[in-house]
Amino acid sequence: MASNSSCHSLTTCVLFLFFLYLSCFFNNLNAKHSITNIHKNQHRHNKHLRNPPLNLRLYRAFLALQAWKHVIYSDPKNITANWVGPSVCNYTGIYCAPSLDDPKLTVVAGIDLNHADIAGFLPEELAFLSDLSLLHLNSNRFCGIIPKTFTNLTHLYELDLSNNRFVGPFPSVVLSLSSLAYLDLRYNEFEGPLPPQLFDKPFDAFFLNNNRFTSSIPRNLGKSKASVMVFANNKFGGCLPESIVNFADTLEELLLINTSISGCLPPQVGFLYKLRVLDVSFNNIVGPLPYSLAGLSHLEQLNLGHNMMTGIVPMGVCELPNLVNFTFSYNFFCEEEGICKNLTSKNIVFDDRRNCLPEKALQRSEKECSDKLKQPPVDCFEVCCDEGGFGKNASAGSVAIPPSAIPVAAMPVSAAPLVAPSYP
Ligand SMILES: *[C@@H]1O[C@H](CO)[C@@H](O)[C@H](O)[C@H]1NC(C)=O
Ligand SMILES: *[C@@H]1O[C@H](CO)[C@@H](O)[C@H](O)[C@H]1NC(C)=O
Ligand SMILES: *[C@@H]1O[C@H](CO)[C@@H](O)[C@H](O)[C@H]1NC(C)=O
Ligand SMILES: *[C@@H]1O[C@H](CO)[C@@H](O)[C@H](O)[C@H]1NC(C)=O
Ligand SMILES: *[C@@H]1O[C@H](CO)[C@@H](O)[C@H](O)[C@H]1NC(C)=O
Ligand SMILES: *[C@@H]1O[C@H](CO)[C@@H](O)[C@H](O)[C@H]1NC(C)=O
Ligand SMILES: *[C@@H]1O[C@H](CO)[C@@H](O)[C@H](O)[C@H]1NC(C)=O
């Protein structure tokens, strides 16, 4: 996107513009000072005029930010109004820090434009910000795609593009960023399948909810380091694969609300021993609630609501020591074991409505329940779990999701990232 036609590649372009810029800069100075003065006191001048002294990397950052400003079409809060001149470290939203490879060099290490309401797009020149480790663009109106040149942002650690208007396929360029730990793409219009490699990346957290992703969760998940995975409100389909157990050593929050997941909950979910939040509500899950969930000793929030699960609510789940909120409404459970009958006595917030529990109020009609009972029991080994689609038989009675309010995983507020490196 470099506009100068004499630039054959971005790098030569940068160098070319740098020298052009230096010569202009010194020409300007010539107007005010004599050449001799500048030569004598260059160091002092540098310090005085530019704070910190301009280096090639800051100059590249200057080019990147000017290119960006050029494609900002609306900035109602005037955030970029002071994005003029070479002192990029003074620009609003731009954070400088000593370079990782040369502490004597000041470089642009972070950009935080959260809630800036800016409209525009991301130009290829942003790749000049090769020292960037944090890019937070939550709640703006950026559109278009993520440029392929982002592959040069090799130090990028946190990428938050949430609540914008980005489109196109999953931005595969993020898979090439070896330092990336935190990926937040929620509330955009990305579409199509997720690349299977995404699940093998050592990301600490990824938030993909409220997009138009369509693929299922791959059946062979590698070891992941993710502690938080939020997929809510996409059209995934398929099942939750047994290989989810490969996430056991790190996974603390798994949110699959309204993702068209079908089939049974695999017993392996019960081996995710660090889970604190499990929400699979508003899907097409069938079959029983696995007894293995009694192993989730850290579980605080469990939401199974709005599925087609049947059978018993196991005592082991109701006795989980840290459970504070257990929602299993809008299923076909027909029996509660032991203490499950009286969750009030355990101070657990619960919702058991619209099941087939004979002793409870606000249940499904007798007809609905007996119709369900007449169907052959679900055989979880038989309920096929096609990748990218519904289970062969699970789709048969798929529930229509009512337009009632879904408790969506909180709107993005990336102001509090999980691991925030601090910049001066
Ligand atoms: C932004 O700048 C424009 C023009 O300088 C001004 O009219 C407007 O009031 C400013 N808006 C804010 C929020 O400062
Ligand atoms: C940058 O900001 C600092 C602190 O606000 C100020 O002292 C300095 O003069 C500014 N530098 C330039 C070149 O504007
Ligand atoms: C990106 O990195 C490659 C390889 O290091 C380099 O050739 C290219 O010029 C860089 N592009 C930008 C925009 O910095
Ligand atoms: C479920 O997700 C789809 C997008 O996949 C969305 O259109 C729909 O409104 C969501 N349902 C609810 C109840 O939010
Ligand atoms: C319990 O969980 C449900 C479903 O996630 C939620 O709607 C409700 O607000 C929660 N209640 C409390 C008291 O946390
Ligand atoms: C549930 O337990 C509470 C306190 O332990 C008790 O007061 C209440 O009567 C019990 N309710 C039922 C329906 O057994
Ligand atoms: C799927 O359901 C059909 C009847 O609806 C049944 O004949 C068939 O055996 C089932 N297949 C599997 C794999 O459960």
UniProtKB/TrEMBL annotation:
Keyword vocabulary terms for this entry: Cell wall, Glycoprotein, Hydroxylation, Leucine-rich repeat, Repeat, Secreted, Signal
Highest taxon of the lineage: Eukaryota
UniProt cross-references to Pfam families, sorted A to Z: LRR_8
Entry's localization field: Secreted, Cell wall
Signal peptide stretch: 1-31
Matches recorded under Gene3D superfamilies: Ribonuclease Inhibitor
Family matches, as InterPro entries: Leu-rich_rpt, LRR_dom_sf, LRR_extensin-like_regulator
Main location class: secreted
PANTHER family recorded: EXTENSIN-LIKE PROTEIN, LEUCINE-RICH REPEAT EXTENSIN-LIKE PROTEIN 3-RELATED
Protein name: Cell wall hydroxyproline-rich glycoprotein
